[in-house]
Amino acid sequence: MVRVYNTNLDRVLTLEVPVAGGRPVERGDYAVPGVPGTGAKIVVDLAETAGAATGALLPTGRPLDCLDVPGVGAVEASLVDIGNAHVFVRARDVGLVGTETAAQIDADNDLRHRLERIRGAAGRRMGMISDPARSRVESPATPILGIVSPPADYLNDLAQATVGAGETDLLSRLMFMQQAHKTYAGTSTVCTGVASRIPGTVVHEVTRSGTRDRAVLRIGHPAGVIETETCVEAGAGGFVVRRATLGRTARRILEGYVFVPDAG
Questions:
Q1: What pTM was computed for the model?
Q2: What is the CATH number for 50?
């Protein structure tokens, strides 16, 4: 295993790449739910990206905030910033069960408008949006909204198969760019894992209690189950993320030559 560091200002992204005979492994059986095919597993550790968007892992300093959302009312939410800034809410607090498909969420226009209002209010609380009413203009992508609930049986919409409650540690549905995500974003995988290890967050609340101290968290999303390795330590200055990973696949897809004219 070789570790590759990608530095962006003061943030370090660590990639753990499998090697054999001094060369990267090009084949493997690792699969990412929602992504066709398999490949060698590359582990991406985003632990040092905590606070990149807002300056802190918990932008408000609290694991749970109460948002006063115009047209919606008071909504409890957890604001967490690692990989990307996120706002997490309970599915039941927004009128959902948590097992809905992406298509079911997208078909409810009133629900989508309410969720965007919540996202806008959270963005303002995090200092990312000045006017919640202009959230789609000021910052349409982030914070990403996660809708979490305890484990339950649900339909894998992509494979048309049932995911059993025992296969997951929590369920989550994402709103990205005002639409329900068909699978689960990589940075959301990491952020959900970290939030699940911070007592007081809504993510920690819905996570299967027997798994809260384990390294691996299993997240049930519309197209299957994705795993993340997480290690979060509590210290005098707050929570410190030691590990926050997502898996990716890699394979050779092209080999060729490019002919460049002589300089003269």
A1: 0.87
A2: 3.10.310.10
